[in-house]
């Protein structure tokens, strides 16, 4: 059974299957299109929404976290680029894991990618709804019923928090009182059925339906839409940075780390979420004109551009408004201009709607192509690999993705899903980074990307020793005050043991520096994600394994061939 669980697909077979497809996908994407797709996916809900909570926890120092996260993603992006240059087929980390680790790992990573794309898009749709509603109110003076633009759990929590906070309004600002009163009024005005308050997010559902239709009718139409949206939102972000510079008060940058480095690390999930998306490019390999050359470039270019924009916008926001004012702010870019320059707030709201729309589009394109690849391998029913004869898109998989994201956006709370999305993506990044170490040697060819080999024999152990020294107080406390209920420190100890093991193996086997750093940095970022998200992630993985053993294990194409 062990051999069957870890049966692998060869690179040659994957490429041959893709080339011999009776109904192939359209090859229309260039390196410029891929770069724009990457920016379209990355610059969205993270910079327009979750950056607020990260700034509240980390203060101006959150800009450092953007750099750390960018470096982490950079190591992973190079590993993705190596795989993409070798395996020019759809499937992303799922397909790469099938080659490097075998079938069971491929299934697990494919299941985790549903968290990144389908479940992650729920957060994006909710963020889109928030900005769209803000646009309706301030630009068109249209007010949707409050119970029609929020999920049940968020509405209930906001009501309870607001009721408690307003018991002593003397310590609150006028903005906070207004926000809390809005939450209470929204809850009280909601209709009831059988004593239960009714809440759902209708705008989020509608945008998912529209984007699913666009992804359904063709990659060429999707490409044109994404390119236009990228031009617009990047122009607006640059404008916000320039305009915001006139309102910056450098006193707001002191202290730079108000809650220490630990406060900065609390924003890991939110900031990492802002980078999710550059890997979605790898799902479009079969629609790229020259995937071995253009896909690596598209990933790296988009990551570099987005990192520069993120650092500048983080410093601008925390310079305009004191970090402590970003608590529970879901639209930070609009928030900082609300009283200072309302006309800029309107431009930001329009841009946010466009930005989050482009993210939705790229993720709605990515998820069906992963399911298509899994179906080709027999791990999912054949309907998922069905290609529309006219539009040449995975039609059934696209519709299923739209249904899952649409229903989730109606009712699910965004905070939990953000952490879940981050943990699923980091898990995928770890396997892709580690998988490079198991690839066979290749002959260098001109025009193709080649991951440089840097011997990590001494560098990795030295960096691990430096890490232990920097976090020596936390490490000592974790050992001396060990308790199973202290889950954060238990996870930290697990990471230390894992990192020590990897350092020893790297010293003994001369592993390459870049993939090992990708594995270690993504592993550490997973440790900083709250335990509740880990619990839901493990439940999600258990459900996935159950489906695999009930269906995929027996119906696998490799199993049929054997």
Automatic annotation (TrEMBL):
Residue ranges annotated for the Cationic amino acid transporter C-terminal domain, each copy included: 513-556
Keywords: Membrane, Transmembrane, Transmembrane helix, Transport
Transmembrane portions of the chain: 34-56, 62-81, 198-218, 230-248, 260-278, 299-320, 396-414, 420-439, 451-470, 490-508, 529-551
Mode of membrane association: Multi-pass membrane protein
Signal peptide: none
Entry-linked Pfam families: AA_permease_2 (PF13520), AA_permease_C (PF13906)
Localization of this protein: Membrane
Keyword Membrane appears in the UniProt entry: yes
Lineage top rank: taxon: Bacteria
PANTHER family membership: CATIONIC AMINO ACID TRANSPORTER 4, INNER MEMBRANE TRANSPORTER YGJI-RELATED
Protein name: Amino acid transporter
Provenance organism: Moheibacter stercoris
């Amino acid at each position: 059974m062990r051999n069957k669980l870890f049966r692998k697909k060869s690179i040659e077979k994957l490429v041959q299957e893709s080339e011999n497809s009776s109904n192939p996908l359209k090859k229309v994407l260039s390196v410029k299109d891929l770069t724009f797709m990457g920016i379209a996916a990355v610059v969205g809900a993270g910079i327009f929404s979750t950056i607020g909570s990260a700034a509240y926890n980390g203060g101006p120092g959150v800009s450092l976290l953007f750099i750390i996260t960018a470096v982490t993603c950079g190591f992973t992006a190079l590993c993705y680029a190596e795989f993409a240059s070798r395996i020019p087929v759809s499937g992303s980390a799922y397909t790469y894991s099938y080659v490097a680790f075998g079938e069971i790992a491929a299934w697990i990573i494919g299941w985790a990618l549903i968290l990144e794309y389908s479940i992650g898009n729920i957060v994006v749709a909710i963020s889109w709804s928030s900005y769209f509603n803000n646009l309706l109110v301030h630009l068109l003076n249209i007010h949707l019923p409050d119970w029609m633009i929020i999920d049940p759990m968020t509405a209930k929590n906001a009501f309870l928090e607001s009721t408690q906070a307003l018991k002593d309004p003397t310590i609150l600002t006028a903005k906070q009182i207004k926000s809390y009163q809005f939450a209470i009024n929204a809850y009280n005005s909601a209709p009831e059925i059988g004593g239960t308050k009714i809440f759902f997010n209708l705008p989020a559902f509608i945008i998912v339906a529209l984007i699913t239709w666009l992804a359904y009718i063709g990659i060429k139409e999707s490409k044109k839409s994404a390119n236009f949206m990228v031009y617009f939102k990047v122009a607006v972000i640059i404008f916000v940075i320039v305009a915001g510079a006139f309102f910056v008060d450098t006193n707001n940058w002191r202290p730079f780390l108000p809650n220490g480095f630990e406060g900065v690390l609390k924003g890991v999930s939110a900031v990492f979420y802002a980078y999710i998306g550059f890997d979605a490019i790898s799902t479009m390999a079969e629609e790229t004109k020259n995937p071995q050359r253009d896909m690596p470039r598209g990933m790296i270019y988009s990551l570099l551009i987005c990192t520069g924009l993120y650092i500048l916008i983080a410093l601008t926001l925390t310079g305009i408004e004191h970090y402590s004012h970003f608590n529970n702010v879901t639209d930070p870019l609009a928030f900082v201009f609300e009283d200072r320059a309302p006309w800029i707030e309107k431009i930001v709201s329009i841009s946010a709607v466009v930005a989050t729309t482009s993210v939705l589009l790229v993720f709605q394109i990515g998820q069906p192509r992963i399911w298509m690849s899994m179906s080709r391998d027999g791990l999912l029913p054949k309907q998922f690999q069905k290609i529309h004869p006219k539009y040449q898109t995975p039609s059934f998989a696209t519709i299923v993705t739209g249904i899952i994201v649409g229903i989730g956006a109606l009712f699910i709370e965004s905070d939990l899903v953000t952490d879940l999305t981050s943990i699923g993506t980091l898990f995928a990044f770890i396997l892709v980074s580690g998988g490079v170490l198991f690839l066979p040697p290749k002959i260098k060819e001109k025009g193709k990307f080649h991951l440089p080999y840097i011997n990590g024999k001494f560098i990795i152990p030295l960096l691990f020793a430096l890490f232990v020294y920097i976090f020596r107080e936390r490490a000592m406390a974790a050992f001396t005050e060990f308790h199973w209920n202290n889950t954060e420190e238990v996870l930290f100890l697990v990471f230390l043991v894992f990192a020590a093991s990897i350092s020893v193996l790297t010293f003994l086997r001369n592993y390459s520096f870049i993939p090992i750093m990708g594995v270690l940095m993504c592993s550490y970022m997973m440790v900083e994600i709250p335990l509740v998200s880990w619990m839901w992630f493990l439940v999600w993985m258990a459900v996935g394994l159950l489906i695999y053993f009930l269906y995929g294990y027996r119906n696998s194409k490799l199993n049929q061939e054997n």
